[in-house]
Amino acid sequence: MPQPTNIFSHRPYWAARFGIAPVLPMSRAEMDDLGWDSCDIILVTGDAYVDHPSFGMALIGRLLEAQGFRVGIIAQPDWSSAEAFRQLGRPNLFFGITAGNMDSMVNRYTADRRMRSSDAYTPDGKAGKRPDRSVIVYAQRAREAYKGVPVIIGGIEASLRRIAHYDYWSDKVRRSVLPDSKADLLIYGNAERAIVEVAHRLAGGEGIEQLRDIRGTGFMRQDVAEDWCEIDATQLDEPGPKEPHPSPYQAMPGCGESISFTPHSRPRHLPRERCVVRLPSYDQVLEDEVIYAHASRVFHLETNPGNARALVQRHGKRDLWLNPPPIPLTTEELDRVYELPYTRRPHPAYGEARNPAWEMIRHSVNIMRGCFGGCTFCSITEHEGRIIQSRSEDSILREVETIRDQVPGFTGNISDLGGPTANMYRLACGDKRIESACRRLSCVYPAICDNLDTDHRPLTALYRRTRKLPGIKRVFVASGLRYDLAVRSPDYIRELVTHHVGGYLKIAPEHTEASPLSKMMKPGIESYQQFKKLFDRYSAEAGKEQYLIPYFIAAHPGTSDRDMLNLALWLKANGFRPDQVQAFLPTPLAIASAMYHSGRNPLQRVTRNRAGVSVVRGLKQRRLQKAFLRYHDPKNWPLLREALTRMGRTDLIGNTKKQLVPSGDGNRDRIQKERRANSSGGLKKPASRSKKAGLRKARSRRT
What we know:
alpha/beta; Rossmann fold; pyruvate-formate lyase- activating enzyme; ten-stranded mixed sheet
């Protein structure tokens, strides 16, 4: 993997003489107070501006400020005209456009395509403050506001829509967001390296059209240059018997070995970094679902920054070109990014308005990035990558002290010490050569890779140091826990349940049945049972009554009604009554979304004669699968009775404890008893006042 320049080694831009802004300006009056006549860069975001490293616009804004640039923020502008995009004047270098911390369609709509009633990233949680497909709308308005100013799109929405993708809300394949937004450049993944280089090169006099060699970026062009080797993606994964995983030490294929070239002549022996893989065109994936699934498979096999090649995809008369993924930040770089001078609170312009997203994370600390789990329904790997980037212990402790000393409302409790996954801190491949050559989509599925270092001792040491800080009462771990990794380190589980669980620990087995789990790339329920046994044992040793709160997904590709019935029976047998449940939501670019759209499995070779994947599409069937998760809710009993009768399982309809739903024979006493149990949570013994408050917030209830 190439060694890039440290992002903090650039010579600061001349505007560094203005110093650090107390908060990045959102108005001309604030610019005047800072002595600015203009902004060098203006960031437009679909979120309210919170000056905290968990919010993308703040992190990128403060990073660019550290490079010497004057950065302004336009947050949640009125998109009905270009006027709101002129409020800070014309930027000297570029507009940076992001939808915010979430894809705007996920933010605005539920899995049933219903409009959400609130938006956690908006003051007072008000809905409707951002448009559908915000990146496209904002980019076009910025272009209208000031002709000739480069427009650069980024963030998770641009990242997940960087190639032709299935869009669940319109139920069709859409073009890449780049040509639709008419932006000049797309930055995908973690943007720090790319945005810093872009800013300095533009400031140095280069034109936006010259920035074609920066990793983690995409742009439109007419054709592939003659000095590049072009590989047809349909020849990279030809149908045939499944082959064993190649040795990571084996030399990668040269450009002339077992590949097909486009009709025009291409050099055959160029180095790998001069090879580009041509994905099926937008028109091809639009018309052919099998080709769509194949393109998804090839795309995901080219995501390791150590060996990924550039990708190209035809859109009409032009090519979308994607350079290889960005090189992960070093620990030193990540520390500095998270220790920039954030105020760690919403911009003063919002006054006393609540910001639900900030309130959720203001007392938490992000200790790492990335995830090598590769869950097919999750967008973390597509956006942040599968190589873990960890901060140093000292940097994390300094942030905890900053929260203690500066953040309002702090009572001594750190609400979360984690990240995308709670327990991947400092976990990595044991051999950098293997890591750079590996093409696996997950380091832990179908089994944990032998080369993966699963030692949790650095994380345990971090927990202990954090607890010892003066003024810190409790440190909780609320991020998602990868329990198949945790069971490899029983001492970590003991430390976790003894000191860092507040009565309830959220965990995500997602399902109990093999078919959906194999399509999710999740471990079997046996791993969960193994973790639960250790969790219960160490909780008892600590003298604590603590519970696991499991999450499950309904309607995921590969899930039959019988799978959901078996899950419901497991829930009943284990005394779980989930309160809030989730149905699968196909997000752009995810492998599971490709399964949903195509009915094919990109985790295997995609051929036309291979068996397909069962997909739950209709609203009625999706509601039925969710109903199985809430088998105890009287509102779901008529639907479940009908389904059980159709499935030949009328033996599960009745009024005994062994049956799933009552018979519906007018037994009002039983119905009322069920409702009382649901409302009380069915706890075995009274809970303390604080525990009752926790129960009301918990997503599941245990009998």
